[in-house]
Amino acid sequence: MQEELNWFERLEVWELIRRLDKVMVITLKWTYKVKLDEIGIIGYKEFSRVCRSQEHGRYQMDVKTAFLNGNLREEVYVSQSDGFVDPDNPNHVYKIKKALYGLKQAPCTRYDMLSSFLISQYFSKGSVDPILFIRRNGNDLLLVQIYVDDIIFAASTPELCDLFTKIMCLKFKMSMMGKISFFLGLQISQSHRGIFINQSKYALKSLKKYSFESCDLVDTPMVEKSKLDKDKEGKAVDPSHYRGMIGILLYQSASRPDLQIAICMILLLLTAFVDADHAGCQDTHRRTSGSMQIMGDRLISWSSKRERTEFLINKLGMRSFTPETLQQLTDEVDE
């Protein structure tokens, strides 16, 4: 933690000032995250100044204190961190100059800073994917993809990989993680035979998350002849639970395209239609309303009903009508 605060001072992330009136001060908290490799083992390779690539491949690096390099435009104030309060100025607060972790502006500020730097180094931004940057050197090509503080890159020659590593090292504090082996849930294996992707670790983690580790295989998605009873407690159903499972399967289709068949079977989309004609009946001048609900490609419920009209003139105390007229209107309604 002290090392992190030292970086704050070197990069001039904030300045300690007297607390101003009528300003909101955000409370700081420490968050800890251990980065694991593709098999779940704690491991982190420190960056060496010059990493000579012996063979062509795809590599990954981490930008330390990535958010702290972007300048913040808005005025933001935070409290002093617990355990690191200035004894001479315990009531002072920090005025943020750089994009601190956790701020809503931090990701956008970091992206603007990093993209501006890459463009200044003769990179061009992808027209479809804005986080993909391309640099051409004659017939050679250098590709860089950024995701928060992680960067993956590949080039047609080892010299371009070394060049990009040196450029980033001169600008930021980097951690070189070697050939990419795990990125965003994807386990990546590189060899002379090619590049292979699988998501076994992500799949096992997903099964554990939804308590599916010890489930048995069945031929049907529901128990046959299941008798459903009324939920008397009226327990609310969290729709995000089912959506989360579908989202996981969609992401796993990146390495298993055949999962799309199963996803189409369980991806139940609810569609509802409601319509009504205004005074559609020429005899009664009443409207008919209808609705239908479709789950997937199956109709599960429908409704069609003619509007009931009641005259409340006598209840409202309107005396512009004679009693005979009111009785005549009441008889027409009963008919």
UniProtKB/TrEMBL annotation:
SUPFAM superfamilies: DNA/RNA polymerases (SSF56672)
Stretches assigned to the Reverse transcriptase Ty1/copia-type domain: 59-223
One protein family per Pfam: RVT_2
PANTHER family reported in the protein's UniProt record: GAG-POL-RELATED RETROTRANSPOSON, REVERSE TRANSCRIPTASE TY1_COPIA-TYPE DOMAIN-CONTAINING PROTEIN
UniProt name for this protein: Reverse transcriptase Ty1/copia-type domain-containing protein
Source species: Tanacetum cinerariifolium
Organism taxonomic ancestry: Eukaryota, Viridiplantae, Streptophyta, Embryophyta, Tracheophyta
